[in-house]
Each structure stands twice: as structure tokens, then as C-alpha cells.
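TASK: fixed-backbone design
INPUT:
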């Protein structure tokens, strides 16, 4: 890990990578499994790994998702080869005896107020969702992360009877470069960062 990545790789992951609105192509189940194998290696607090991923791929599953989508996101999401629901498990600590076995990490979280568990789950599943975007790009997929959905409807449809809550959605596939907006500006270092 001592060598910087090539500019070509940095371009694919960050510089020229774009958020796509229209997708084509197919994404195999094997690619989705490979994607998860990369995502799961990213760090989370106490290796808690609270993210739970639902890869919505079949026409039947897409129809279950449709009623929860905002109008501006519906068509592009239903047309994408795969939409990932990035959720988080409020009972993530139940897995800590396996994920963090060298101490009683479960005791750090068991019995905490749900608001605290929500904060931890949301923060760390957001990290894992970002890993998913980068891992997808690394595997040659384009991504379209978004909000713009009714979380309560998604939770009722896909996570009923669990303590899993939805965080955000990511469309996956081969992006149609003719359907993206011009690159928007980013804040310069001096406005967004400090070195102390």
C-alpha cells in the first residue's frame, strides 16, 4: 500500500467518474457478489458493519420499489439494471461477538437509546454506501446515488419485521454519458479544508 494509484485509476474512481441518470446493460449476480466482497472490507466503527444491502434487480422487485420513489427518480430507477437499497441495522451490535470478538463490544451498544443507534448506524452505513460507489466504479460500473424516496414505504416493503432502516439508493449499470449534466463546481481547498 505504499505506492499511489495511477492517475488513470484515480480518474475512474473520482476525477472523471460521474453520477449517472440513465443506465443500460446488465449487472450479473456474480458482479454484485464481487462488489459486496470489496465493500465489506472498508472500515467501520468497531467493525460494526451496520449496512444491509438489497440489490433490487428483478421486474417484480422493481415494482415493489416503485411506489416509494419520488416522481423525478421513478423512471430512471425502474430502468436501471440494479438499484441498491443501502440500509442500516439498528441491531448491528448483535453481530459484534463475531465481528469484534476480542472484547465485549456488544455491551457498548446493547441497551443504548434508539437515537444513538440510529446515529451510529446511519454514519457507518453511509461510509459503507460510499465504499459501494467506489467499489462499483472500480469494477467498471457507473453509479447514480440518490435520496428522493419515501423511507417509511421502503422500510415497510423491504425491511418489515426487522430493525433495518433505509439510508439511500444507488442505481448501478452502464451509464449513458449523453444524459449527464455538466460537471458542477466543487469548493476549493481554502473554503472546505484547513491544515493546522
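OUTPUT:
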Amino acid at each position: 500500500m505504499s505506492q499511489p494509484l495511477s492517475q488513470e485509476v484515480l480518474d475512474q474512481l473520482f476525477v472523471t467518474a460521474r453520477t449517472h441518470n440513465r443506465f443500460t446493460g446488465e449487472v450479473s449476480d456474480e458482479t454484485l457478489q464481487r462488489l459486496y466482497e470489496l465493500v465489506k472490507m472498508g472500515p467501520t466503527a468497531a467493525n460494526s458493519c451496520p449496512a444491509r444491502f438489497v440489490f433490487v434487480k428483478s421486474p417484480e422487485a422493481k415494482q415493489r420499489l416503485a411506489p416509494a420513489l419520488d416522481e423525478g427518480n421513478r423512471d430512471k430507477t425502474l430502468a436501471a439494471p440494479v438499484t441498491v437499497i443501502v440500509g442500516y441495522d439498528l441491531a448491528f451490535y448483535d453481530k459484534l461477538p463475531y465481528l469484534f470478538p476480542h472484547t465485549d463490544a456488544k455491551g457498548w451498544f446493547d441497551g443504548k437509546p434508539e437515537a444513538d443507534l440510529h446515529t451510529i448506524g446511519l454514519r457507518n452505513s453511509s461510509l459503507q454506501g460510499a465504499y459501494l460507489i467506489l467499489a462499483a466504479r472500480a469494477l467498471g460500473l457507473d453509479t447514480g446515488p440518490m435520496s428522493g424516496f419515501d423511507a417509511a414505504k421502503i422500510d415497510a416493503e423491504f425491511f418489515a419485521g426487522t430493525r433495518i432502516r433505509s439510508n439511500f439508493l444507488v442505481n448501478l449499470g452502464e451509464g449513458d454519458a449523453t444524459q449527464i449534466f455538466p460537471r458542477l463546481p466543487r469548493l476549493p481547498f481554502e473554503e472546505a479544508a484547513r491544515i493546522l
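COMMENT: The chain has one domain: 25-175.
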